[in-house]
Design a protein that fits this description.
With about 300 residues, the protein is an alpha+beta fold. It folds into 3 domains: about 70 residues, Sandwich (Immunoglobulin-like), CATH 2.60.40.10; about 70 residues, Immunoglobulins (Immunoglobulin-like, Sandwich); about 120 residues, L,D-transpeptidase catalytic domain-like (Beta Barrel). It is about 15% helix and about 45% strand. The protein has 3 helices and 21 strands. The strands form 6 sheets. It has a 5-stranded mixed sheet with strand order 15-14-13-21-16, covered by helices on one side. Strand 14 and strand 15 form a beta hairpin. The longest helix is centred in the first third of the chain and has 36 residues. The radius of gyration is 45 Å and the shape is rod-shaped. The protein starts with a helix and ends with a strand.
Length: about 300
Amino acid sequence: MKNKVLITFCSILLVTDILLSATGFWYSKIRMNVEEGFSLIGDSKVTVLYGKKYNDEGFNVNIINNLNPDVSIENNVDTSRIGKYEVKYTLNYMNYSKSLTREVIVIDNEAPTLAINCEENINLIKDNKFSGCKYEVNDNYDKKEDVKVDIISNLDESKIGDYTVTWKATDTSGNSTEKSIKIHVRNRDDLYYIVVYISKQRLDYYENGKIYLTTPVTTGHYNKTPKGDFKVLKKVRNATLKGADYSSFVKYWIAFKGNSYGIHDASWRNNFGNMNYYYNGSHGCVNTPIDAMSTLYDRVEIGTPVYIKD
């Protein structure tokens, strides 16, 4: 009887071992089937531009006898905010579970816009201070106050030369934009001066190296207007100019050579800039229309260069 019980017990153990072995083998096959048959489509790490739509590439399931796989998806991707996100896929099959994860990084690669409220080339009188330039920044993602603006400059107002000032705007993602201007440091006489062209019967007044005023004029008959490099010696309002054969009242007088030669208005003339100045010109001064003369008188300073050219 004991032997019968022992044999029966051993048989049960044998069957149990066989069943456990078969179950382990079957579970191992399921595990292998899932591991090999469940995969991502595309890369496990992808980047998406801020504000753009994210289209997930999904997954592949190729498991024997499983035409309707049970896959749950968790997706927290938000392309309206820069950062790292995950898309998680979990497959449950025959009491076995496997998860796949795709990392999605939302980035901003657009540089901020930068506008400088200055001319690209600025003339600066030596030893004067550069007052700076206003600027405006905008960014597709960051607030204005979060955009860092650095000013890089080699400017030395005490030395004549050409310099560069650069504004660099950088957003929190490291995208940057640069804008530069040139500053030309010069002596005042190189930037503020008067030029009279006798052959053109024209006067040009320069401020900051650019023409501020241009006007027709009438110079001396028989080339009596001296040519050369002069300076403004004095300015007089409501003066009477006298010579051997004339006495003329002028509202504005700018002398550039002694008391005999200057630039002044000429109310007795109806036309200026005529090429018959050689026969019908002044006694040597530069006759100028009253409106232009008024502007010139108000802006020109003592010591301003006056160049009389052919």
